[in-house]
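BUG: 3D viewer hangs when loading the predicted structure for this chain

Environment: internal workstation, default settings.
Expected: structure renders.
Actual: progress bar stalls at 90%.

Input used:
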Amino acid sequence: MKIKILIFGLLLLSSNPTVSKTENKPQDKIQNIEPDYEVAIMFINDYIAFCNVRNSSISRIEWIENRTDVTTEFKTELKKITEKAEKEYPEFGLDFDPIIDAQDHPKKFKIDNKDSKYLIVKGTDWSSFRVILKLKFDLNKWLVDGSGVINIPKDKQLNR
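Structure tokens produced before the viewer hung:
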């Protein structure tokens, strides 16, 4: 009889729903995933290649809109900055490129420094030229969420 009570007690304890099990929540898994910095490198180098095409048939905004490696927030902020500058300065618009936070740029970039979801890249042919990018895990993949002055907090922007 004692054995039956002991077995019944063990069964009862093992099936008790109040006993908590350690489970990883989806956000815990995301925080443990290292950002895919290659997404940022590919984006910025593709962007520089786009900038180097003379007489492109599409605008910077159209080019960004066609990208699948950029967040919606990035696209929205770029449009907002561009439209504001065109309204305030209709003859000139922006006098710099907000994605690289400059007027001129190197031919290509490589990783300089990683800081969590932020990445600093530097020119392969102009090593003192740097751009900061921000990554965001969205839709189960890493996307570019900031670059230059687009979605980059003032305290993280690089000094020019």
